[in-house]
Amino acid sequence: GENVEQHPSTLSVQEGDSAVIKCTYSDSASNYFPWYKQELGKRPQLIIDIRSNVGEKKDQRIAVTLNKTAKHFSLHITETQPEDSAVYFCAASIRGTSYGKLTFGQGTILTVHP
Amino acid sequence: NAGVTQTPKFQVLKTGQSMTLQCAQDMNHNSMYWYRQDPGMGLRLIYYSASEGTTDKGEVPNGYNVSRLNKREFSLRLESAAPSQTSVYFCASKATGRSSGGGGEQFFGPGTRLTVL
Question: How far is B91 from chain A (nearest CA, A)?
């Protein structure tokens, strides 16, 4: 089955700096890669996603890049703010199914210091 | 529109006791999922239901059973709870369609924090 590795496990930055979280996946058939943000005590929520036919996607201060050849994808947050502090999860979905079974990475605890 | 709801929010069990976690969604989604979340291990899929009437094992199904009662409801049962099942349990749902090709947003419930003593 699919295996998703996520690094780093913790990331500490100063407000205004950029943050980058990286994930690798094992199954070349995966074609959908979402990122979820989970604030303390809350449910995970989708913040951005990318499909395998696209190399990069941006949404304001957040961007995701995908390298299919190397089987890795990354989340980039620019101009970080204290409210960006949360746990971030990457995930991958195997192509060919319509029910979207996701395999998640282990998570990255991002702390943004004012 | 409540989205995905879960009951209870908190539960403490003794080893060997049984219980059922309830999940319901009002978004007319076909697919539903149960995950457990443990520190440093991300979200791991326990069981999922691609559509009403079907269920399949995920990554960590041992010790659990599920029932897709109807399109709205998907329950998770622990027949004989063990301390290793202490975790936070999340239910999620997703709209499906062949054009999605496996993609699309999963919507999560608020979670159930379960402690097994």
Answer: 10
Residues from chain A contacting residue B33 (CB–CB below 8 Å): 101-102
> Which residue is listed with tokens 């004012």?
A114
Strand B56-57 with B31-37, pairing: unpaired
Cα dist. B2→A50, B25, B26 in Å?
27, 8, 7
Whether A98 has its CB under 8 Å from any CB of chain B: the answer is yes
pLDDT in tens, B42-80: 899 999 998 888 999 999 999 999 999 899 999 999 999
CA distance B47 to B35: 7
Number of C-alpha atoms within 13 angstroms, CB side, residue B55? 19
Q: How far is B83 from chain A (nearest CA, A)?
A: 21
| Residues in chain A within 8 Å Cβ distance of B90 | 43-44
